[in-house]
Automatic annotation (TrEMBL):
Record keyword Repeat present: yes
Signal peptide residue numbers: none
UniProt keyword terms in alphabetical order: ATP-binding, Kinase, Nucleotide-binding, Phosphoprotein, Repeat, Transferase
Pfam families hit by this protein: HWE_HK, PAS_4
Coiled-coil spans in chain: none
EC number annotated for this UniProt entry: 2.7.13.3
Name of the protein in its database record: histidine kinase
CDD domains per UniProt: HATPase_RsbW-like
Amino acid sequence: MIRDTEIRADVIAPAPPSQTAPDLSHLQQAMLDITPDCIKVLGVDGTLITMNRAGCVALGVPEHSGFGMPWLSLLPETVRKAGHTALGQAARGCTARFAGQSASSAGTSYWDNLLTPVTDASGQVVSILCVSRDVTAQTRLEQQLERAVAREKLLANEMQHRIKNLFTVVAGLISLAEKESTAAPPGTSATTILRDKLAALARASDAAFLDTPECGDERADLATVVASVMQPYGARCTTAGPVATVLRSVTTTLALVLHELATNAVKYGALSGESGQVSITWTLSGGALTLTWVEANDRRDRDEPCQRGFGTTMVDRIVQAVGGTVDRCWTDQGLTVTIDMPDSVATA
């Protein structure tokens, strides 16, 4: 692009023509109007001297306006600082470059702006050639690639997070099964209880990752969703709330959130101790659902964490994706989480 700009500088400011040469002003303008690049000639002070047709269209300036306005004033506010810096560099005799963008009814366009000083025989800068090339397609492709890479990193982190949590949850279920076996009927072994809990955990995982786009607006019973996720933790978890149904489209969200909260309770919270309890309640108000998770901890060394973990961030993200909010509060008893879901998600 820099070599192209040097050629265009020669076209705009050529050597003096011979007596027999044709009038070059119309030829020059025709050549400049053919290119899709936005080409502008600026004064050293930033005044717009002339501009080709593509530039007029991009900046919304009539072709026969006479120009003379400050070039920077035509740029979006977000890129004027970068344009001002590049203009100063070009005025001092240095080639400068900056990224720009503009908005129109067709969307946002992205530009690569190259400013080249035009000098006289003594080397003095007399004007500045600015060539702006539309790089929208390239920029959008780069943005798509960045988003794809971010998604892959998120999935990799999620996989690592799930694998680590799986071992912790299973260890917690073993401990729960051993405790429950002491109060179970004769002949009921901890292994049998653990096998049942692992089967329930598998069902909870299925519910958490259920994908049912074909169900449309079909609804699922809220109590059933909560019970399926919390079943592995037995009597340590209680649920209460009015009869309610939730859209299938948010069933996965609720199951994922409850599964993550239960996992953290096994690792750090109420379910990590000997007799801690978890209570899950929900209320309805005008079609909106409020679900509250309350931990009653038998340990007093569980304070608010110093930093947010991946699981906490994931919970917030998936709830926000359906328009909901998450509020956390740490008390002497343990963690309380309040999840508000938007209207029409649940109906009595």
